[in-house]
Amino acid sequence: MDDKIKKYNKVTKEYVDKIIALLKEHYGEDYVCYLNHENAWQLLIATILSAQCTDARVNIVTKDLFIKYDSPAKFAEADINELENDIRSIGFFRSKAKNIKKTCEILVRDYNGEVPKDIDELTALPGVGRKTANVIRGNIYHIPSIVVDTHVKRISNILGFTEEDEPEKIEKDLMKILPEDYWILYNIHIIRLGRSLCIARRTRCEECFLNDVCLHLHL
User: Can you list the pairs that 39-44 forms with residues at least 24 positions away whose Cβ atoms lie under 8 Å?
Assistant: First the structure.
């Protein structure tokens, strides 16, 4: 039997509860967003920019970007070539500039410059998938949502919480086994774990506070 399936089949409520308790004990229960923003539309744009880019790089770019373009209307009216140049240091800057401009045009035209909270309305915006939509729903509107980024995808598989590779399927698996009031915090905790100990290229299992229970080590 495949190792991922073995782990998935061994996941019990007791195991999940132990993992959650250890994550809370180690990282606390404060809600933290790693993308700098002051409002919903800034977080939406920052999250679009963050695809295949580090939060640190995005925060460097948005520091000046949000001064130059201080409303969705300013982004909607932006010269596309100038906007591309403003975000050139971020990967895929041409497609991201196009999506940001089009998204802001829709926000101004259809939502009076406000960011919708409905998942279908959000994912209908150019450049906005479920990950970005759930970032907005969780961080801005405090709607229980699971954000499946690269850390959550990889570490959820390591922990045995899912055997899936597609983000939407991973999201559904996690929604089944994690308490709803922990959905938002799970992403925050797993990002910290993925950046400090469960690192993609060099996991530090011997130092990890989950090593006594993690199914990756105890199949």
Answer: 40/114, 40/115, 40/136, 40/140, 41/71, 41/72, 41/104, 41/107, 41/113, 41/114, 41/115, 42/66, 43/135, 43/136, 43/139, 43/140, 44/103, 44/115, 44/125, 44/128, 44/132, 44/136
